[in-house]
């Protein structure tokens, strides 16, 4: 029982990390209908910004806030000066461009920050809580991670379901010409979508780095699992992204704890294939097939 509880709590925390990254992918998909494969190195860059400030004597929370703000600005700049050049072209052009940006940002980070491993602090304890005489596998930073993902989820749900701004962003993503005719500033909405997605991605980078080691490639593995989590829940659903992340985290933790860590990638692939075969749009997709 103790091992099962430890495995489940570890999976819950891991799932929250995957959910944070999946939320960034879902946000940019809902706002622009593009899958941004450069989300991971963008988050890595902003994490390094926080680390440089913390090493310079700033508090963790000051570095945290500046990193989030840097993500907001970086996302807007990428959309305005990179993605905008393929606006109106087939969506695959933008996807390929984000893959190229993935490589470029990696190289720039290695040049500017170096390739060595560097420790990143955590604002809360990294040891499990004591319950009676037992230590459970849930840390203060794990609680912070879960709470932060919950706040982002609530914010996105309110944005897209309860505000005119969210409606304009979705309209700009689905049909730009019609949205322009209705008075929507499409360019601004797309820039805002990229900025908010980069902010959510920056949060995921900070959560993954907390109490661990960072280097230019430390986010690369999260791209795969975060994308799987987003697809599991449905790329159109913020709630689905969180549920997909938690399901994936719990599943991979159980596989690692009871079967073997070497089978974790295979388990993620099997879970993804099962969902795509049974419900291709994801578990929480709202799209319905139209029959005529």
UniProtKB/TrEMBL annotation:
InterPro entries from the UniProt entry: ABC_transp_permease, BCAA_transport_permease
A GO MF label: transmembrane transporter activity
Record GO biological process: amino acid transport
Keyword tags: Amino-acid transport, Cell membrane, Membrane, Transmembrane, Transmembrane helix, Transport
Pfam families in the record: BPD_transp_2 (PF02653)
Predominant localisation class: membrane
Top-rank lineage group of the source organism: Bacteria
Compartments (UniProt record): Cell membrane
Membrane topology label: Multi-pass membrane protein
A cellular component annotation (GO) from this entry: plasma membrane
Residue stretches spanning the membrane: 6-27, 34-54, 60-82, 94-115, 135-160, 190-211, 266-287
Record family assignment: Belongs to the binding-protein-dependent transport system permease family. LivHM subfamily.
PANTHER family cross-referenced by the UniProt entry: ABC TRANSPORTER PERMEASE PROTEIN, BRANCHED-CHAIN AMINO ACID TRANSPORT SYSTEM PERMEASE PROTEIN LIVH
Protein name in UniProt: Branched-chain amino acid transport system permease protein
Originating organism: Amycolatopsis keratiniphila
Biological classification of the source: Bacteria, Bacillati, Actinomycetota, Actinomycetes, Pseudonocardiales
Gene: livH
């Amino acid at each position: 029982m103790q091992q099962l509880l430890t495995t489940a709590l570890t999976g819950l925390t891991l799932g929250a990390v995957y959910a944070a990254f999946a939320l960034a992918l879902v946000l940019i998909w809902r706002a622009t209908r593009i899958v941004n494969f450069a989300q991971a190195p963008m988050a890595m860059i902003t994490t390094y910004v926080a680390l440089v400030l913390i090493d310079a004597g700033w508090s963790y929370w000051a570095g945290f806030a500046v990193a989030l703000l840097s993500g907001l600005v970086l996302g807007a700049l990428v959309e305005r000066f990179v993605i905008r050049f393929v606006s109106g072209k087939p969506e695959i052009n933008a996807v390929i461009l984000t893959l190229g940006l993935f490589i470029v940002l990696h190289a720039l980070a290695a040049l500017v920050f170096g390739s060595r491993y560097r420790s990143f602090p955590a604002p809360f304890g990294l040891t499990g809580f004591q319950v009676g005489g037992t230590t459970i596998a849930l840390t203060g930073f794990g609680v912070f991670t879960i709470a932060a993902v919950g706040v982002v989820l609530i914010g996105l749900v309110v944005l897209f379901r309860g505000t005119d701004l969210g409606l304009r962003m979705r309209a700009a993503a689905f049909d730009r010409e019609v949205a322009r005719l209705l008075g929507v500033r499409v360019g601004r909405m797309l820039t805002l979508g990229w900025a908010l997605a980069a902010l959510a991605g920056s949060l995921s980078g900070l959560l993954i780095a907390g109490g661990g080691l960072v280097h230019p490639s430390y986010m690369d593995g999260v791209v795969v699992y975060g994308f799987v989590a987003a697809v599991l829940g449905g790329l159109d659903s913020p709630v689905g992204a969180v549920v997909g992340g938690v399901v994936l985290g719990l599943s991979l933790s159980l596989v690692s704890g009871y079967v073997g860590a070497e089978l974790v990638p295979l388990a993620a692939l099997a879970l993804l294939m099962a969902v795509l075969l049974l419900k291709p749009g994801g578990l929480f997709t709202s799209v319905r097939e139209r029959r005529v």
